[in-house]
Amino acid sequence: MRKFASVEDVPPYEWKTPLQRSIQLLKRHRDVMFREMPEMAPISMIITNLATHAYSGEADIYDAVTGIVARMRSFIKPVYPRVPNPTAPSEDYADKWRKNPLLEKNFLVWHAQVQQDLARLHTLTRDGMDREIQGRFDVQLTRDHLSHIGNSFPAKVSAAVAAPSVFVPSAPKPWGK
């Protein structure tokens, strides 16, 4: 990890967008929830794929992650491939769900839990939020973090610098226009 003297010194390739931060939070929640049985956890490619489809360009991380969670299940198809690989649409990231239906059930249980946990943050005091974040994400907030949050959640946590727009003219579908 490198340190920079100012925001302007941070190269663009090191910026984290609200989508990237949201995916990190979702995967962290998944890792903590399935700590005792990681082989039964939703796979990263499913979370990443669904989150990318569900992201609506929110600049605020809390708005992005709650919006993603609210919309992500709508991108699971009712027929196979259920969660297609965007670069090879006949490939199904959820192919193991057929062989082991418990994996799909675990995804749905995780999704319901992360949705509930994010909604619960609205109701907590700083101390309650600290305990909840510690329990659900295994992250210890410092006094400095808590002082920036204020008395209630959500604090607006925006990207430090607006994420650059990227246009790739020959991107594989569904990412290309």
Q: Helical region count?
A: 7
Apparent shape: globular
**Number of structurally distinct domains:** 1
Question: Largest sheet at a glance?
Answer: 2 strands, antiparallel
Percent of residues in helices: 40-55%
Unreliable residue stretches:
150-164
Kindly, what is the distance between the CA atoms of the first and last residues, rounded to a whole number of angstroms? 35 Å
- What is the radius of gyration computed over CA atoms, rounded to a whole number of angstroms? 18 Å
Spatial order of the strands in the main sheet?
A: 1-2
Mean pLDDT: 81
SSE ordering: HHHEEHHHH
Strand content: under 5%
Structural class: mainly alpha
DSSP summary, beta strand count: 2
Describe the fold and architecture:
With 177 residues, the protein is mostly helical. The chain has one domain. 47% of the residues lie in helices and 4% in strands. It has 7 helices and 2 strands; from the N terminus they run αααββαααα. Strands 1-2 form a two-stranded antiparallel ribbon. Strand 1 (84-85) and strand 2 form a beta hairpin. Helix 1 (18-33) packs antiparallel against helix 2 (44-54), helix 1 crosses helix 3 (61-72) and helix 2 crosses helix 3 (61-72). The two termini are 35 Å apart. The relative contact order is 0.15.
